[in-house]
Design brief:
There is one protein chain. Helix content is 48%, strand content 7%. The protein is of the alpha/beta class. The strands form five sheets. Strands 5, 6, 7, 12 and 13 form a five-stranded parallel beta sheet that branches. A two-stranded antiparallel sheet has the order 1-2. Helix 19 links the parallel strand 5 and strand 6.
């Protein structure tokens, strides 16, 4: 037997002795239904929530039943440290394939203990002093900090104090705790603001991120964030421009700061500055000189984004949503919404086809899953119209009162819109018969250029391949061939390679039209966080009343709607240029005076006046970025 084999056997013998000792120790653990705490924790660790729901519930019940009796054992697990012999054994076993067993490491014990603390919540408050002591131990500080976070409000005083104690490890976790723990977050604001001046960049970065998420006290927070646009740490600068983009009510402070971000030497800071500026629409006008400079960049992605924002400066906005496009040309966007009814669909599509026009259809999840509408959806896809989300369940997001109080949580809104988008994708999989775009494979010199600039390497286990139909438009599947090398400097992006745009596409859905065409600034902000722009109809006509029934007090006849559109075209100095004209696919049995019977006539009149009928994205995007 060689020397290495003897060492392995000796270490395994030590591990066996340790296991015997561990069995003795485990006998002192609290028990539930005859099983010690460690057994329940192991079971919880190995359970897959979606597949083992019954098991997970049982394990939750076990840990809850043991309650505070489990705390001494959990604290010991959080403080676990691997002895040198165990680390050496693990390293040796990783170098061979005969023995499949591996010793249990300290990080695994810490993970299971943290799971248990998250189950116990405030019940674990008696452990706060011991957890606080662990914050000074480098090997256990992070797990201890997160355990304090999941305990919740009782741990807040300790977390506030720990954030200002430079002898504490894992302090970068604490700003997230201050933002996550339930309760009034305003008293925590001074601590978060102080953290912006912390010497540790990870703490500054975390504080910036949390302040951006909370979006409170804009008059105080925005001036505190603005100086960090010049922070020496790259991550802090990146988080700062992203956080500032969330404060859309203070463009006079935020826009000049984001304009500074366009001069940053790092590509990602410039990129996120442009992403943030895009949400301000015409309010970003003060950044025009910096945008014009960026529009002349040799970087394709930066150049395209800057030109798009300059184009958006010509749009009209209300409450964070675009309500009219640029007025320089005789183009207008015809927008239709669909939920329960679509009796006008075929007539509308026929009229559009006759005029070689394209429109945008914003549809609810209920519309998309109604198989009776599949023939219409097939035509919408295959005739190259735009489909976008309109709320999965046609929710009213804010009240009708003047204050427009938000009626849903951010989570409810996000879930509703994501479900709506997923149903559009599913409908496309069923009904979109257009051929997939042909994307050329990335060339070897492009991959090599990317590796040289960014410390990335090309994976060799995947041959070049054209994109699959499921890939978002513009995203080559060759993007999967790039993976981090782990080298120092791999995160540097001082310049952007030519292939980046092919590897990082825009979101699949660019625009969102809220249900009831009703929203507030908060809904517009949440829409931006989903990577989309909220749009709404241009005021000035009665087109959006084509759903009203004869028995309704607010009924508007088709003749009045028709006349209001032509009157607006005559009286507006710009006619209907840039207009977003909204109609409904159907009004249901409550209306016999269907406007879709007049739709073709309307297109005839407008086409005779020289108007072109385009999709929303064609109206709101400069031609070179479409």
């Amino acid at each position: 037997m060689n020397k290495c084999g003897k060492v392995v056997i000796s270490l395994i013998a030590l591990a066996v002795l340790a296991a015997v000792f561990w069995g003795i120790v485990r006998s002192r653990e609290p028990r539930y239904q005859g099983k010690p705490l460690s057994t329940w924790l192991r079971a919880l660790e190995s359970a897959i929530p979606d597949e083992d729901e019954g098991r997970v519930i049982e394990e939750y019940q076990a840990i809850t039943a043991m309650g505070t009796n489990a705390l001494p054992c959990l604290i010991k697990k959080l403080g676990a440290r691997d002895p040198a012999w165990k680390t050496a054994l693990g390293d040796l076993l990783d170098k061979q394939s005969v023995v499949d067993w591996r010793p249990r490491m300290a990080w695994q014990e810490q993970d299971t203990a943290l799971q248990a603390f998250s189950i116990l919540g405030e019940t674990a408050a008696p452990a706060i002093p011991q957890l606080t002591a662990l914050l000074t131990q480098p090997h256990a500080a992070s797990a201890a900090a997160w355990s304090l976070i999941v305990i919740g409000p009782p741990a807040l005083p300790v977390l506030r104090e720990a954030l200002t104690n430079r002898n504490i490890y894992g302090r970068e976790c604490i700003p997230f705790a201050l933002g996550h723990i339930a309760g009034d977050k305003r008293p925590r604001l001074p601590v978060l603001l102080d953290s912006l001046r912390d010497p540790d960049p990870s703490v500054r970065s975390a504080a910036v991120q949390v302040l951006g998420i909370l979006q409170m006290e804009e008059d105080t927070v925005v001036p505190a964030l603005v100086p960090l646009i010049r922070d020496p740490d790259l991550l802090v600068r990146r988080q700062t421009v992203r956080a500032l983009g969330r404060f859309s009510r203070r463009p006079e402070l935020v826009v000049p700061a984001l304009a500074q971000g366009l001069d940053d030497p790092n590509w990602f800071v410039r990129h996120f500055s442009l992403v943030a500026l895009a949400a301000f629409g015409p309010d970003a006008r003060e950044a025009l000189p910096a945008l014009e400079k960026a529009a002349g960049s040799s970087d394709e992605n930066i150049r395209a984004r800057a030109r798009r924002i300059i184009h958006r400066l010509q749009c009209e906005m209300w409450n964070g949503g675009i309500i009219r496009g640029p007025k320089a040309t005789r183009t207008l966007a015809l927008v239709f919404t669909g939920h329960e009814f679509a009796e006008g669909g075929e007539t509308i599509l026929d009229a559009l086809q006759r005029h070689q026009g394209r429109a945008s259809f914003f549809l609810t999840g209920d519309f998309l899953t109604n198989k009776n509408f599949d023939p219409l959806l097939r035509r919408m896809f295959n005739e190259n119209h735009l489909l976008g989300p309109h709320s999965d369940k046609h929710l009213l997001y804010c009240s009708w009162e003047k204050e427009r109080e938000t009626l849903v949580t951010q989570e409810q809104f996000m879930t509703d819109v994501r479900n709506n988008r997923e149903k559009i994708r599913s409908a496309a999989d069923r009904l979109d018969e257009r051929p997939d775009p042909e994307w050329p494979p990335l060339l070897p010199h492009e991959l090599e250029a990317f590796r040289q600039r960014y410390g990335f390497r090309a994976a060799t286990n995947h041959p070049p391949a054209p994109p699959q139909s499921a890939a978002p438009a513009g995203l080559s599947t060759n993007a999967a061939m790039i993976e981090p090398s782990g080298k120092p400097g791999a995160a540097r992006d001082d310049l952007q390679p030519p292939i980046f745009r092919r590897m990082h596409s825009e979101p699949e859905f660019h625009y969102f039209l809220p249900a009831y065409e009703h929203y507030n600034r908060e809904i517009a902000g949440w829409t931006a966080q989903l990577g989309m722009t909220l749009i709404n109809f241009t005021p000035g006509t009665r087109s959006n009343a084509d759903y009203t029934g004869e028995a309704d007090r607010n009924f508007v006849s088709s003749q009045v709607i028709f006349d209001s559109i032509l009157k607006k075209e005559r009286e507006d100095p710009h006619g209907l240029n840039g207009f977003i004209l909204l109609l409904h696919l159907g009004a249901g049995p409550g209306r016999t005076d269907k406007f879709h019977h007049r739709f073709g006539e309307l297109l005839d009149v407008l086409a005779a006046k020289g108007y072109q009928f385009v999709r929303v994205d064609e109206l709101l995007e400069p031609k070179e970025t479409q």
